[in-house]
Structure formats: C-alpha cells, structure tokens
Design a protein that fits this description.
The chain is an all-alpha fold and 197 residues long. The chain has a single domain, classed as Up-down Bundle (Four Helix Bundle (Hemerythrin (Met), subunit A)), CATH 1.20.120. α3 packs parallel to α6. The longest helix is centred in the last third of the chain and has 25 residues. The N terminus and C terminus are likely disordered. The chain has eight helices and no strands.
C-alpha cells in the first residue's frame, strides 16, 4: 500500500512541462509537430475515454521519425500528468501554450493549433465531435470555431490580449467538461466541491 501512496504523492507533485521545455525536447528528437498541437492531441485521446493502442505513433508518423526512449518517456509523462490533472479536476491542468513574452499572434496561433490537436485526438479515438449533452456539444462546436480562428488578424492591443486570455481559459474549461461528459462524471460546473481559484 505504501508503494501506491508514494506513486500518487509523486503524481500530485508533478507538473506539465512549459512550452519552451517541450519544444526543445521535441526538436532534439526530430519532432516537427508544434508543442501545443501535440498536447491537444494527447488531451483529446485522454478525453475520449477509449483504449487507444499505440497512440504515440500518431506523433511519430506525422513527424516521419522513429521512436526512441527519450521521446517515449516525454510522451508518456505528458500523457500521465495530463490524465491525472483532468481526472482529478485539478486547477493545475493548463494548456501548453507559449508564455506572455511571445507576440500575441504567435500565442493565438498556438491556441488554434491546440484546439486542432484536441479535435484530432478525439477523431483518432473514433469520437465524433458531439457530446452526450447539449452544453458539451456546444463546447465542441466552439472548439471547432477556435481551431479555425484567423490568428493573423489578431492585433497586439489590450482588447485582443484580454480576449485571448478569456478564450484560452474558455478552452481549458471546455476540455474539462468534455472529459467529464465522455467519462460519465458530474460536470465541472455542477461540482460544488470544485475550487477553481
């Protein structure tokens, strides 16, 4: 029993890599895929609640590279930590996006790629873009629209900066709701014990 306690304790202390860290690891392993899109794919697969064998091949196939121990470890850790945060309703779950030092259009592009990856992950697990309840169905439709957003039209001003922040938070919460719906758990909004602050 002590072993499982240690494992759980280590998992709760784990953190997702930041964008720069993940980008460097992927580049060093020849992965051309955008880090945000990769994280979106993994979260889409996790949310699907389907057993997806060899999901890592989606990454290696898209990048036309061979798997290796370093890359496998990175992908597995990314998967396990994201799965834990989503399953536990943890506020620590965040989208892997460039930090605020990057230009707003760059961050907006990353957000669209995250959503594209998420939808790709759902499709990879044979989940159609429709939830079992109206709210989740609307959330998924919104994610489709965000995935198609014209990030090149974004202007680096205070209004667009605030809109980007709100949009990223909306995506984060939508993903939590999709996870709850497809895993047949109470929705995030209806959980009175959930502390998001």
């Amino acid at each position: 029993m002590a072993y499982f306690t240690r494992v759980y304790s280590n998992m709760t202390q784990a953190t997702l890599p930041d964008f720069t860290e993940l980008n460097l690891t992927l580049a060093n392993n020849g992965v051309k895929q955008h880090p945000s899109e990769l994280h979106g794919i993994i979260c889409g697969i996790i949310c699907s609640n389907q057993s997806v064998n060899n999901w890592e091949t989606l990454v290696t196939d898209l990048s036309d590279i061979k798997s290796n121990d370093d890359l496998d470890t990175t992908l597995q850790n990314l998967y396990q930590i994201s799965d834990h945060f989503l399953n536990e309703f943890l506020f620590d779950f965040q989208l892997i996006l460039p930090d605020d030092s990057e230009t707003l259009p760059t961050r907006a592009e990353a957000l669209t790629l995250w959503c594209q990856g998420f939808l790709m992950g759902l499709q990879f697990a044979n989940i159609t873009v429709s939830g079992s309840n109206k709210d989740v169905n609307e959330s998924l439709k919104d994610l489709v629209e965000i995935a198609k957003m014209n990030y090149e039209a974004v202007v680096a001003n205070e209004e667009d900066e605030e809109a980007y922040t709100e949009l990223a938070e909306y995506v984060r919460m939508a993903v939590l709701d999709v996870y709850q719906d497809l895993h047949h758990k109470p929705s995030v909004a209806s959980d009175p014990n959930l502390n998001l602050h």
